[in-house]
Write a structure and sequence with these properties.
The protein has 21 helices and 15 strands. It binds 6-O-phosphono-beta-D-fructofuranose.
Length: 532
């Protein structure tokens, strides 16, 4: 399959994407929809043959069978011997999902109702703190226990009418310091979010928050909640069972915002809007399970990714949401994609025969336009871009802003597609009165090669439901790409070594241990800090 695709790529490489629009309804043929959400991939060098070959690749890789196995609770996370069932967290109908012969749905739905009762009580004041109604919620977590809720809280701020939420993740004391100084301990709820309840950054921050609260609150335990798979550890730490919201090990950290890890978002936006978020995710699941691959958004998004990264050799991809409130989405996708598919070995432990998943990066538009877009338009490396934008903004009185935002988004993908030729630039320079060598020199600086691929995901408005659709879309995209590449997208062994070494360096930094066995650079840096 790869050989065919490589040959196909060689035949089509360098072809002008703009010319592909000459035949028929390319926009209609190379876009796919789920309800009101539209994924346009017509501005890529993919034609009907490419698409057919890519779909055949997905079929040969067994995407459908592995997808079904995942949804059915089979232990597809083989290196950890776990099922992969974050999809169960948004299965609001309670359709049976079994792990080891046991239906997991009653417990999932029970936890959801406990979360809803608690979130509602926090919002309406029936659960209160020493100083009265909760005004602030601090979510302490990192990675998957932070990025999802932090991203969603900001994305859905037009819906946030509960207490203010703050997110602390970094072990850098500056992070918690800056949040604590904004909050009143007598009216603050601290949520310790950690699947394992052992993550050093989170536990250090949680301890600091507890000390801060204890200065003014007599029963600190009453103002703490825990979100974890390790309820025993949360209990040992002193959090009462009624405020421990558990989830099973078949929910991966970076896939966990649908369940208890989303509690802060639920408190902020309310249980109904959080349900709408889950419904959006569930709608994407149903689509992923049932739509033909040629119309299947996660499959198509993955295949475009495979085409750009594996066949065209573009090592990164940029996610550029034209939505300021999606400012944390690129960071969220970085964990989702790079922790999932940034591996060197395939499922059976042998070396990957392809590159692993790409580097993912981005920033909201239009800000990026005035920063790194220079490289995207004229740099020597091609960066495939994934734009996303809502047709309408939330600020009706500022509709003219939104129109400009949308115009900029479309203009960027058009510029990447169309470019500007040397002849055109010469004409422009001539019109400015330049001649000879100076005209030529100036013209060359102004050339845009164009023919640079991008996709656009467009939807009516950023709502909880739409956010749910987008997150589930990207989760499944990662799954499809991982399956095609033979990667287990659900483990993350690559984060372990650094954690171990950091623990070992702690006593060396404080001088309790010497640095025997450490390299010269590390020892030199340790000395620098010790002498500072
Ligand atoms: O170090 C990586 C990681 O394990 C992520 O996969 C996870 O999301 C994050 O740390 C936080 O882990 P926990 O929720 O167990 O504190």
């Amino acid at each position: 399959m790869w050989t065919d695709l490589k040959a196909h790529y060689a035949r089509t490489e360098g072809r002008n994407i703009l010319n592909l629009f000459a035949d028929g309804d390319r926009f209609g043929d190379f876009s796919a929809a789920l309800g009101d959400m539209l994924f346009d991939y017509s501005k890529t060098n993919i034609d009907a043959d490419t698409r057919a070959s890519l779909i055949a690749l997905a079929e040969t890789a067994g995407v459908a069978a592995r997808r079904d196995a995942m949804f059915a609770g089979e232990k597809i996370n083989e290196t950890e011997g776990r099922s992969v069932l974050h999809t169960a967290l948004r299965n609001l109908d309670g359709r049976k999902v079994e792990v080891d012969g046991q239906d997991v749905m009653p417990e999932v739905l029970d936890t959801l109702s406990r979360m809803e009762a608690f979130a509602t009580a926090v919002r309406d004041g029936s659960y209160s703190a020493q100083g009265g109604k909760i005004t602030d919620v601090i979510n302490i977590g990192i990675g998957g226990s932070d990025l999802g809720p932090a991203m969603a809280y900001r994305a859905l701020s037009p819906y946030a009418d509960g207490p203010a939420c703050h997110y602390v993740s970094n072990v850098d004391g500056a992070d918690i310091h800056d949040v604590l100084k904004k909050c009143d301990p007598t009216t603050t709820l601290v949520i310790v979010a950690s699947k394992t309840f052992t993550t050093i950054e989170t536990m250090t921050n949680a301890e600091t928050a507890r000390k801060w609260m204890a200065e003014q609150v007599s029963d600190t335990g009453a103002q703490f909640a825990a979100l974890s798979s390790a309820d025993d550890k949360a209990a040992e730490w002193g959090i009462a069972a009624e405020r421990v919201f558990g989830f099973e090990d078949w929910v991966g950290g970076r896939y966990s915002m649908w369940g208890p890890i989303g509690l802060s978002v639920m408190i902020a936006i309310g249980a109904d809007d959080f349900r709408a978020f889950l419904q959006g995710g569930d709608a994407m699941d149903t689509h992923f399970l049932t739509a033909d691959f040629s119309e299947n958004l996660p499959v198509l998004l993955a295949l475009v990714g495979i085409w750009h990264h594996q066949l065209s050799g573009h090592g990164t991809r940029a996610v550029l949401p034209y939505d300021n409130r999606l400012g944390r989405l690129p960071a969220y996708f970085q964990q989702l994609e790079m922790e999932s598919n940034g591996k060197s070995v395939s499922m059976d432990g042998s070396d990957l025969t392809n590159q692993a998943g790409p580097i993912v990066w981005g920033e909201p538009g239009t800000n990026g336009q005035h920063a790194f877009y220079q490289l995207i338009h004229q740099g020597t490396q091609v960066v495939p871009v994934e734009f996303m934008v809502a047709a309408k903004g939330h600020e009706e009185d500022l509709a003219h802003h939104h129109k400009l935002l949308v115009a900029n988004c479309f203009a960027q993908s058009e510029a990447l597609l169309r470019g500007r030729s040397l002849d055109e630039c010469r004409e422009r320079m001539a019109a400015k009165g330049l001649t000879g060598d100076e005209l030529e020199r100036q013209a060359r600086h102004r050339v845009f090669s164009g023919n640079r691929p991008s996709t656009t995901l467009i939807y009516p408005k950023m709502t909880p439901y739409v956010l749910g659709q987008i997150i589930a879309l990207y989760e499944h995209r990662v799954f499809v790409e991982g399956t095609i590449l033979g990667i287990n997208s659900y483990d993350q062994w690559g984060v372990e070594l650094g954690k171990e070494l950091a623990l070992a360096l702690d006593p060396i930094l404080s001088g309790e241990q010497d640095g025997a066995g450490k390299d010269g650079s590390t020892l030199g840096l340790v000395k620098y800090v010790q002498n500072a």
